[in-house]
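I'll show a typical protein example:
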Amino acid sequence: MVEKTIRIVVAVGLSAALLGAGGAGPAAIGTLYLAAVTVALVQYDVRELRLPDALVLPGAAFVVVGAVWSSLQTGGSRVAVAALACGAAALVGFAVAASGGGLGMGDVKLAAVLAGALAAVVAERGPPLGEVVTIVGCWAVMSFVAGAVVAWLAVRGFGSRRLSAELPFGPVLLGTFWGFVLLG
């Protein structure tokens, strides 16, 4: 019961923060879905060291619906193009990174959904498409840097404490995503 309450409170809090950040329209549909599943994804990834498709993949549908709706509402295709292009680029980039090991396909799929959602929200706020791509690119780089630092600290240890070398990457992706969405 407590776990469910925590999930609801965090989802409502993230949703309220997103909507309060200004400029949130239909493109935020994907991000609102992510607010609803963030805690569950983090808990699952920490416990199982994998991200379930049942929670990740519906996010792609919500991102597409929100981006297309926003594009139809504004009469242009900028939001949909930004979401699809950034999502596809993240999918390819993270898949290449995963081919070296250490990164799972759940992380790859989550990165694509997060990149599409971030691009849709940023594009709807109005910056040029080049700026949207730059922001999403910065998010991807920051995610990798944060993940590398966490992994290095885990292997190196915190003083006398040493963590397992196998760390979930989903919480890093979600943390940097929410930082960019709410502070960017």
Summary: The radius of gyration is 16 Å. Residues 129-156 form the longest helix (28 residues).
